[in-house]
Here is the input.
Amino acid sequence: LDDGVLLWVRLPMPGETPTGRPIIAPRPPHDEGIAGVISHAVACEPRDIIANRLDPWHGAWLHPYAFSDLMVDEAESSVDRLVLDVSFRLGSRIAVPVRAAFACPDARTIVMTILDGEGVGSVVETHATPVTAPGLHPAHTVMTEATIAHSSRPGFALARRVAPLVAVGIRATASRLWSDDLRYAARLYELRRRDAR
Here is the structure.
């Protein structure tokens, strides 16, 4: 299935019942956003990528060049949704504050949606696809992340005219973050395997 951003292929795992169609969280309209997609393989299990992405606090200490002033809103968060306020850094002196929500539409997907601030409605989908069967080691997983940027500002219409160039920047930013995070996920997996021996 081609959803306009990602191509979905059914890869059933032992003991799992596949759904009839992929579970796709709400996104900005395809003709109103700019999408950038990255994909990287890593030696870990899907849960290590999910654990990394669901740890909001790691953003401020592992990626200080990208995030600051992170605060989880415990009152607005629930077992199904994590809400936080964070500033995205655009250099050493400029940051853009946003409110974002994290949710998991399925066991191997995390969707971050910007609720307030610049880029309301923008979405970042992180998918952890197992390459090896559950319980088979060493485990290998493919992390695929789709960023769909959206803005109601008039200038965003101009940005959409050069969407391929903007997408290059989106992919570069995501790849820089995940170069740190994939090492984090691989280390979680390595430590868990070492402790299990």
The chain has four helices and seven strands. The mean pLDDT is 92.
